[in-house]
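Hi Y.,

Following your request, here is the sequence exactly as I used it, all 434 residues.
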Amino acid sequence: MDEPTGEFPAAGSDEPRVTITGATAAGDLVDDLPTIDPLTLLPHWTEAPTGQVPIVVARDVATAGDPWSQIPAPAWREGEADWVAHEEQFDTSMLAGAERTETARPWEFDVDDDDVTAAPVGVDEPEWLEPARPEPGPAPVGRTRRRPSANPLAGRAVRQAPATSSVARAVLTGVLLAVVVFAFFVAGPLPLTALVLVTLAVASGEAFAGFRSVGAHPATVLGLVAVVTLGVAVYNKGLVAVGPVTVLLVVLGFVWYASAERTIDVLDGLGATVFIYAWVGVLGAYAVALLSPSTFADRHGLAYLFGAVVIVIGNDTGALFIGRWLGKHPLSVKLSPNKTVEGLVGGTGLALVFGAIIVPLVSPWTLTHGLEFAVVLSIVAPLGDLFESMVKRTLGVKDLGRLLPGHGGLLDRIDGLLFALPTTYYLLHVLSMH
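Below is the corresponding structure, written out as tokens. Let me know if you'd prefer a different format.
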């Protein structure tokens, strides 16, 4: 009942430690360990090192009704199993020497010359940011500072593209490719259908490889089989086969990932598979629908596909050369800053020329129909090109392949045609040209 004095108890100078009522003296716990200091529970500093390290093992089961027990306590690794359990959370290869890979070094990145900005003259940077300089030699006037690229998928691997090929090599590749394609047109619908199926399979493979290079898990084999199966089914049964093949892909894709050895996000796996199948397989199947004998009589489908290909080639060629020559205003800075409004106008102009001069040479095309298709496809084909640019920017890659020198991959070459094929098919029905 006394009033508080505000004073604190203090241990005397002759007492080895503060005494707490009800506590067990630390020295009483280690009477059988003479080498242990009773005040610290640690070996005396004069003793030889034992090589042992402290360990904390706390794996208590949560107690019902106690919210604090739900918080996981720290558990130190004490055996091999503990290291294996955390193997996927920490990549030890990052600590390796020369064997470490570029994708395992997130603190480093490569940028092009255009992405390097110069720091002000005389401004010093930390030593670890400075590039190595040859010795002896004059001191550099200024230093360069690297900045990270605007990759929308931060943390994913970005595959660097090769150096830009010359225009001459790109033109040569385009001419040789056009000769091969037109040779198959002369050969007839069946050989051309086989070429279309091979083209769609290769383009799908490039897309699957692009997704896998950034860590996605599409079912590549299942997707390739679905693309080829869809093409064969459309040639025999028409576009009515799109529904059954798509249903089979989704069902078999579910079985594919359900039976996988490890759990994979269904949107990351099956979503990417169905996306590539729809983009390349379904849109590309309209070329097979045009060639199918059940769609157009008298091989008119072959002529219509020829006209669509010629107009798209004219659009791409005009956009390439006019864009390089006069291009100043970007068409879409967000998706593809290299495509310009001037290139779009130039591509439309050359597509109109091809539609008015080359396309009417093939029956049953007329001058009017050639110009009508040139106007429509000059709008649709660039959309297909921008769509692929959006996909590549999302993945963080320059090209989806390197099969065609100067052009990138095969999918980079037919991106606009994929959008033009269904447009051609339905526009033929709208204009009653079938």
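Residues 348 and 378 are 5 Å apart (CA to CA).

Thanks again,
Q.
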